């Protein structure tokens, strides 16, 4: 049961990362659309960094979901065979995703000031 709860936690995390990536990608569109009623050209018509980063986060979240399923099945087999070995790839991916999000937001906020 703990393996299943862990799997579901990874799925929730991957969905959260994908949702955040979607929000980041759509935020640039929102800012661009709000600049027209204000009479300002806030962002250039190109997609910009936020769109690229948003797409990257959605892809990372999807990859984490697939890897979580693979890990779930692997751990399930190891539990049945009584040969469990912890895996660190998803932990590393989550840490890198959080680090990338933080770095991007700091750079984005510095450039927007």
Automatic annotation (TrEMBL):
Q: Which UniProt key words apply to this protein?
A: Cell membrane, Membrane, Transmembrane, Transmembrane helix
Q: Which InterPro entries match?
A: DUF202, IM_YidH-like
Cellular component annotations (GO), alphabetically ordered:
plasma membrane
Extract the Pfam families matched here.
DUF202
Q: Does the keyword 4Fe-4S apply?
A: no
As for membrane topology, the entry says: Multi-pass membrane protein
Q: Where in the cell is it found?
A: Cell membrane
User: Residue limits of the DUF202 domain?
Assistant: 1-78
Transmembrane region(s): 7-29, 49-70, 90-110
- PANTHER family, from UniProt? DUF202 DOMAIN-CONTAINING PROTEIN, FGR18P
What's the protein called, per UniProt?
A: Membrane protein
């Amino acid at each position: 049961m703990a393996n299943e709860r862990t799997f579901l936690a990874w799925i929730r995390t991957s969905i959260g990362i994908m949702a955040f990536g979607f929000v980041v990608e759509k935020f640039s569109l929102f800012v661009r659309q709000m600049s027209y009623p204000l009479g300002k050209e806030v962002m250039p018509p190109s997609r910009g960094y936020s769109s690229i980063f948003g797409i990257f986060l959605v892809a990372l979240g999807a990859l984490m979901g697939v890897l979580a399923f693979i890990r779930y099945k692997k751990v399930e087999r190891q539990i049945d065979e009584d040969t469990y070995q912890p895996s660190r790839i998803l932990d590393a991916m989550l840490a890198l995703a959080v680090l990338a999000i933080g770095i991007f937001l700091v750079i984005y906020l510095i450039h927007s000031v």
